[in-house]
Amino acid sequence: MRHNLPSRHQWQKQLRGLWPALKGSLARVYKPCIRKNCPACARGDKHSAWLLSFTAQGQRKTMYVPLALVAQMKQALRNGRKVEQLLYNTGPALIKQHRQRARNN
What share of the chain is helix, strand, coil (3-state, %, to 5)? Predict the structure, then answer.
């Protein structure tokens, strides 16, 4: 676990490289479609779909994700975890920096 506080410039540079970023989860689900007489559904097969789950204003939300966006959403989730880790590391780094300054004064 690293607790070195980066400079504002370093912090901004790290964040710029982590766009897009999001917090949530992505799940592949299988469900029947809405078309009447669908041969796949008639066989008992279900259609795959991707769903993004996230919290907005304290409520859990889910949105359909088009297949063309799945790779970008996966990267955004990875980036979101990296941003979250940067934030978690900042608190201990600020305390460590404060203690070092207090010792030097």
Answer: 50, 25, 30
Q: What is the mean pLDDT of each run of 10 residues along the chain (105 residues)?
A: 69 86 96 85 87 96 96 97 89 83 83
Cα of 3 vs its chain's centroid, Å: 22
* DSSP assignment of 58-86: TEEEEEEE-GGGHHHHHHHHHHHHHHHHH
- Structural domains in the chain (count): 1
Torsion of CA 74, 78, 79, 81, to 10 degrees: 140
Structural domain harbouring 48:
22-104
Number of Cβ within a 10 Å radius of residue 52: 19
Q: Does residue 11 lie in a domain region?
A: no
Q: Which two tokens stand for residue 18?
A: 């982590």
In a domain, 97, yes or no: yes
Q: Tell me the CA end-to-end span of the chain in Å, nearest whole number.
A: 27
